[in-house]
Write a structure and sequence with these properties.
Layout (H helix, E strand, L loop, with lengths): L8 H10 L5 H8 L3 H12 L18 H13 L6 H8 L3 H10 L14 H17 L5 E10 L12 H13 L6 E9 L2 E8 L5 H18 L5 E4 L8 H10 L3 E3 L10 H15 L4 H13 L3 H20 L8
Parallel strand pairs: 1-4, 4-5
Antiparallel strand pairs: 1-2, 2-3
Helix pairs in contact: 1-3, 1-11, 2-3, 4-5, 5-6, 7-13, 9-10, 11-12
Length: 329
């Protein structure tokens, strides 16, 4: 059933594409979206065209050669990854036009390869992937993680604004403390569903982390009464003595991801999905952010989550075959 609250097909395709899943056939299989639609979405993403619905329509005005040249010059001047917004402001050219010009110049939107991983880090990634495949129990894994939401980043880039509304919005946000306002969110996903979120404002400590595990343990056991394994990253708080003692005593089993390995943690894709959906609600207060986060988390059914987790096995194989490199496909 379609409604404004559902996690849209385009969002799911875009998150998978940005995480390295480039083949329309694979995306279609993971999301159950028709192959033709996936092919169209992927084609647009490869060209740097956003899948978001944009206001207005009609023909494009042809840019004068001087403007095109200026965009190219500005893009070559940048030493860091090119920022479309920055070039658009510097040249007074729309972001869509900047994207088209850069695409024609062979400059595309893509992920960087993991060039900064050293040999030891790559070997740890390979060993971890081999161990996970050997266990062959991915359906019993619970992937847990934390992320943060900043109020100022929970706003859409595009919208319908008249001059009066735009000025009111600018005034409202300039007077607020949104740039220093953020929420921390802890959650967990598995093939059988989600673990309820824990939302807090203080910085995570080992004591807070232990209390979260204590609070959520019952849910984990209800999902997997015969045993489960939690998968978490290498944050020092996760490896602290008091947390380790609690896990050893009460949690069935535990594994740590190798360093620099968000590409083999499916909950990272879910965080991306969640943040994109929350931004569409354009929350203006921290309470609205919380409400939006919880609303979309409740929509994450096992049917939505399972393809992301099953894809992880393919990533393990890819990383082993590519000697520990970042998953890019």
């Amino acid at each position: 059933m379609k409604n404004n609250q559902e996690i849209t097909k385009k969002v799911r395709v875009q998150v998978l594409f940005q995480s390295g899943v480039k083949k329309p056939t694979r995306i279609s299989k993971m999301t159950h979206i028709p192959l033709r639609s996936c092919e169209r979405y992927v084609s647009n993403l490869k060209k740097g065209i956003s899948l978001d619905r944009k206001p207005g329509s009609g023909g494009r005005n042809k840019l004068p050669p001087s403007k095109v040249k200026k965009v190219i010059i500005k893009s070559k001047e940048q030493k860091k990854p090119i920022q479309i917004d920055k070039i658009a402001k510097q040249t007074s050219v729309s972001k869509a036009s900047v994207r088209r010009i850069l695409n024609k110049e062979g400059i595309t939107y893509k992920r960087l390869k993991g060039r900064y991983l050293n040999l030891a880090q790559k070997q740890k990634r390979v060993s971890f992937c081999q161990e996970m495949l050997k266990m062959n129990q991915i359906d019993q894994f619970i992937f847990i993680d934390e992320t943060s939401f900043w109020l100022n980043k929970c706003r859409p880039y595009y919208g319908w604004y008249g001059d009066t509304v735009e000025k009111q919005c600018d005034l409202k946000f300039s007077q607020s403390k949104l740039y220093s306002t953020k929420l921390h969110v802890w959650g967990g996903i598995s093939s059988r569903g989600t673990i309820s979120l824990e939302i807090f404002t203080e910085n995570m400590t080992k004591e807070i982390y232990k209390e979260i595990l204590k609070k959520k343990r019952k849910q984990m056991e209800q999902l997997y009464p015969h045993g489960y394994r939690i998968i978490q990253d290498n944050d020092p708080k996760h490896r602290s003595k008091i947390v380790k003692q609690y896990i050893d005593k009460y949690i069935f089993s535990n594994s740590f991801l190798p360093p620099y390995s968000p590409d083999i943690n499916p909950i990272e894709l879910i965080w991306g999905l969640l943040k994109k959906q929350v931004s569409k609600d354009s929350p203006e207060t921290i309470d609205e952010v919380k409400k939006s986060i919880r609303k979309y988390w409740r929509q994450l059914t096992p049917e939505i989550i399972q393809p992301y987790i099953k894809e992880t096995n393919e990533r393990y194989k890819w990383i082993i075959n590519n000697q520990g490199e970042f998953y890019i496909k």
